[in-house]
Amino acid sequence: MNSNNPNAPQMIFKKVAHSEKKMLFREVAHDKMQVSVKGAVQEDIFHLIAVQTEKDEALLCHHTADSKGITTAQKCVVNFAFKSERYFFQTELYFESGWAVLKIDTDLFQLQRRANARIDLPDKYDGVFVLTSAGGKAYFLDCRVKDISAGGIKIELPANAPEVKIGDILKGNLRLGVRRAIEFEVEVRFAQKKDPVGAAPPTQMAGLQFLHVDNLLESRLLSLMMDLQREIFLKYPKK
């Protein structure tokens, strides 16, 4: 596998071997662990309690308080923590004989906890950070997102944007493709002026770190990363 390919699934999520996967799901059910589910039908993450596996093909689960209202079969991204590692899989949720059932005859991925694990967005991809506040002033400026990790983004600010410097706190909305925008407060961790090409106006590049990331937002970001990685891998294959 070419480790220099920024879109390779192994870059952020490493595929778990089949035998290890079977053991993991059995342990998750044995320990009655809670799993986090991001469904395709609603934006909010909900939770299920794993109870037992069936033929290593399905994980039979009980509802929790925040999932009682979920009754629609749907595609979803599931994640859970086990022995300090985080695991993800994309699957289908359905309901049968009083159980919430997750199909587990699918690839399971382990999160690579490298700080530099990021996804480069292709030039044609619609990734925008709408800057709404900087230096106490209100703005409404589209900044192109160059790459994203679970901890932050790199953006290119337009020529009419205010100059930003390391340590500045900004606010804005992150929009990736057709997904609903997520509002963030961010800290500038890197800032560089970009020399103009020809008659083009000068721009700035900035590396932004997400602030106030709790467990729920982290789960949402990691689910987003997995979904985004798959989308780019399918739509923009490397030549």
TrEMBL record:
One of its GO terms (molecular function) is cyclic-di-GMP binding. This is PilZ domain-containing protein. Pfam families: PilZ (PF07238). InterPro entries: PilZ_domain (IPR009875). Coiled coil: none annotated. Residues 112-225 form the PilZ domain. It comes from Bdellovibrio bacteriovorus.
